[in-house]
Amino acid sequence: MVDSLKKPEFQEMRPGVKVPTKETILTPRFYTTDFDEMATMDISVNEDELQAILEEFRADYNRHHFVRDAEFEQSWDHIDGETRKLFVEFLERSCTAEFSGFLLYKELGRRLKDKSPVLAECFTLMSRDEARHAGFLNKAMSDFNLQLDLGFLTKSKKYTFFKPKFIFYATYLSEKIGYWRYIKIYRHLESHPENRIYPIFRFFENWCQDENRHGDFFSALMKAQPQFLNDWKAKLWCRFFLLSVFATMYLNDLQRKDFYAAIGLDARTYDIEVIQETNETAARVFPVILNVNHPEFFKAMDVAAAANNKLLEVEATGQPKPVKLLKQLPHVATIAWQMARLYFMKPIDAVQMRSVVR
Fold it and tell me: What span, in angstroms and rounded, lies between the C-alpha atoms of 170 and 159?
C-alpha cells in the first residue's frame, strides 16, 4: 500500500519510459512554419539590436549552470502520492515545451544558414539553450524512475503549422511568460526554502534569464518586421495570442493547484501575478495588451477554469464516448463564451502607453 502511494502508476512504453500525456488543447505543442518566408525577411531596420542579442547568445552565460550537484543524489520516495504525480506531470509538461522549442529553433537554424546567417545563428544558439533545459528536466524525471523518449516524441507528436508572424507572437509570449513563471517560483522559494521540495528550483534564477533573452530576440525580430505590429490585423492577433497563452496557463495551473500548494504557492494568486507581469512586458512591443486589471477579467477566467474541471470529471468517467461528448458540450460552451467575452473586452493601447512613458 505504501509503495503504491510513493510510486503512482503511469503508463510506460517500456520500463522507465513514460507514455507521453495525451494531447489536448492545453498540452504543449510542436510547431513548424514557412521556412522560405522566414528566409526572405529583411531584418536591416533592426539588425543592430539583433546583432547585439546574438553576441549575448554567443557569450553563453549558462554554459556551466545546468550541472547536477550532490543534492540530487538521494532517494525522492518521500515525495509521494498525488504530489509525486503532479510533480512528474510538471516536469513532463516543462520538458515537452522546452523540447518543442529546441526542435523548432534547430530546424530554423538549419534552414536559414545560407540565407540569413544572423537569424540562423540566433536560432541555433537558442536551440542549444532549449536542449539543455529539456535534458535537465528529463534527467530530473529519472529521479522519479521515469523519463520521456524524446526521439519518439520527435517522430510521433503532431506538428502545428503557424505562419512566421504567428510563430513570433506565440514564442515571444511563451518565452516571456516562462521568465515570469520561473523567477516568481525562484523568489518565493528563496524566501521560503522549507517549501523547496526538490533542488531543480535552485536553478530557476539563471534559467529564466535564457527565457528572457529568447523573448528579447523575438521582440527585436518583430521590430524588424513592423508590418507584424502596426495594422488592425496585428492588434486582433496580439489580443488572440495573449488570451490564448494566459488562458492555457490559468486553466492548466488551477487544474493542478495541489502542486503549487506543495511548494507553498496559491496557484490562482501566482497565475494572476504572472499574467499581469507578462501583459505589462508585452506592452513594450505589442500594439495592444489585455485589460487584465478589469474586475471581470479573472472572474471570467475562474468560470472557464471551473468548466474545465467539469470537463475533466466527465472525461474520467467510464461512460461511452458519445455520452461523454454530450455531457461535456455545456462546459465547452461555457469556456468558449468566457473566452469570447475576454477577447472582445476593450484592450489597452500599448503604443499610447509607450509614448506617455517617453
Answer: 15
Assess contact for 283 and 350: CB atoms under 8 A: yes
Q: What is the pTM of this model?
A: 0.93
Buried b (16+ CB within 10 A) or exposed e, 321-354: eeebeebbeebeebbeebbeebbebebbebeeee
Q: Which residue has the cell 537554424?
A: 109
Question: What φ, ψ does residue 264 adopt, rounded to 5°?
Answer: 80, 20
Residue 214's identity, in one-letter code, is: H
**DSSP one-letter string for 234-267:** HHHHHHHHHHHHHHHHHHHHHHTHHHHHHTT--H
Q: For residues 115 and 39, is the Cβ–Cβ distance under 8 A?
A: yes
Query: Can you say how many angstroms the Cα of residue 214 is from the centroid of all Cα atoms in its chain?
Result: 13
User: Per residue in 130-189, pLDDT tens?
Assistant: 999 999 999 999 999 999 999 998 988 889 999 999 999 999 999 999 999 999 999 999
Give 87-148 as a DSSP string: HHHHHHHHHHHHHHHHHHHHHHHHHHTTT-HHHHHHHHHHHHHHHHHHHHHHHHHHTTT-B-
What amino acid is encoded at 44 in this protein? S
Residues counted in the chain: 358
What is the DSSP secondary-structure string of 40-101?
T---GGGHHHHHHHHHHHHH-TTTTT----GGGSS--TTS-HHHHHHHHHHHHHHHHHHHHH
